[in-house]
Input
Amino acid sequence: MHIKLINKKIHFNNYKVKCAVGKRGISSKKVEGDNKTPRGTFKIQAIYYRKDRMKELKSLIKKKNIRKNMGWCDDSKSKKYNKLIKFPFSWGAEKLYLNSRIYDILLILNFNNKPVKRRKGSAIFIHIAKKNYAPTKGCIAVSKIDMRKIVSRIRRNSKITIY
Output
């Protein structure tokens, strides 16, 4: 399945769903902390989810449970930059196990990972949107219902193109 993001709408199969993107829009010149969503085509690298909050999550690809000690390094000085980490961690990192529900389901995109370039940007996820579809720090956010539709249809070779 190929997903397309055009004008704050995600298109896949016969669906068109609303989404939020970075506060400063979409850019082909992404850098860490710029609040922009990167333009390009990306593979969906992994699915992480809160098993304690999701009784059932149907997917054609393997899912990984988000644990309390999990995070994603966003500190470009660290050797673990743009990688999954475990807390405690002495560098800057974003927690994945949150009280808010935005990370109950996460699709990790393969942005800036082979090779990882310092300051190019990290942690580009598709995650659950806030109620008002508030802009993100660079991720893509959709409703929980739409996220479940996407997760149930993606395959190992699924990609998203962000225009």
Remarks:
- Residues 144-153 form the longest helix (10 residues).
- The chain has a mean pLDDT of 96.
